[in-house]
Amino acid sequence: MKTTYFFVATLLLVGCSSSKKSVENETAKSDFTLAFGSCNRIDLPNLLWDDILNTEPDVWVWGGDNIYADTDDMAALRAMYNKQKEQTGYKKLAETTDILGTWDDHDYGLNDGGVEFEAKDTSQQEFLNFMNVPENSPLRKRKGVYNAKKYDVGNHSINIIILDTRYFRTQLTPDTETKKRIKPNEYGEGTLLGQVQWQWLQNELNTSKSDFNIIVSSIQYLSDEHGFEAWGNFPHEVDKFATIIAKSKAKGVVILSGDRHISEFSKREIAGMDYPLIDFTSSGLTHAYKGFTGEPNKYRIGEVVFTESFGILEFDFTAKKVDFKIVGDNGIVLEKLEQVYE
């Protein structure tokens, strides 16, 4: 048995149109394919569902802002969810692919909203309806939309852990000193996940025997300098999360995030972990921050993609490898990252 550990990471940037490749032209078939995305409006063209279908994913994961409702009117919220469910491309995907996901503020119902949103319980039920969760599911009685599902692939498995960064999240601190919207809370002040969800997450990681553990967070974990919503606004919980992951010895932990209307890879070495932690941000599906001119992110690997895109993760259990890809319209791979966990 091997007693030493190492990682290999390779970033492949697509720099010119002649070298761009579509996903369908890359013939190697992965053992398991996860596709995910966020920031999807029903009043804008949904251009990427055919490209997502072409990747033949084993699971599609919503990363939040799955619709833009910003309302406590549940009839209006339901109508928007139903319209998305009838969108031709998405409907085809839902008929053939397992669907998981979380919410973010715009489908939660309140922009930058958290624990104070009075309609959160009824909004949660509408979200679960959208996700086709059975009426008798225990998730219907849970406070918050966090959950997990394990996928067995032969003798291997992938555990997908869905977090809720809305239901329990306490007050943010407005930044009145700079042009940024939000600044970090004082260390120890407030919570993002809440006590019960923290205990659940720790148990999920401590008991997982899976080859990979994919954690879905609607907001970015590693990038924390931009002044918008991020884990970095609760610095004590950033540290708590890192400690829990390291102590759990869970294999292949990866974070998937959305929210930002940009896509990027971030990577950080964490004490006690035998591999680097990657935060793969994919946003948005129907609209992007096309006026993006740059922002600091000390953990960024490669360049920011600021056109409409989605993300895919292709798992190779034999090589203990994940190929991370940012994919645009017509299946063009805009950027990719290879990570070996061994």
TrEMBL record:
Record domain PhoD-like phosphatase metallophosphatase: where: 48-263
PROSITE patterns per UniProt: PROKAR_LIPOPROTEIN
Pfam families linked: PhoD
InterPro entries according to UniProt: Metallo-depent_PP-like, PhoD-like_MPP, PhoD-like_sf
Protein name: Alkaline phosphatase D
Organism, scientific name: Maribacter caenipelagi
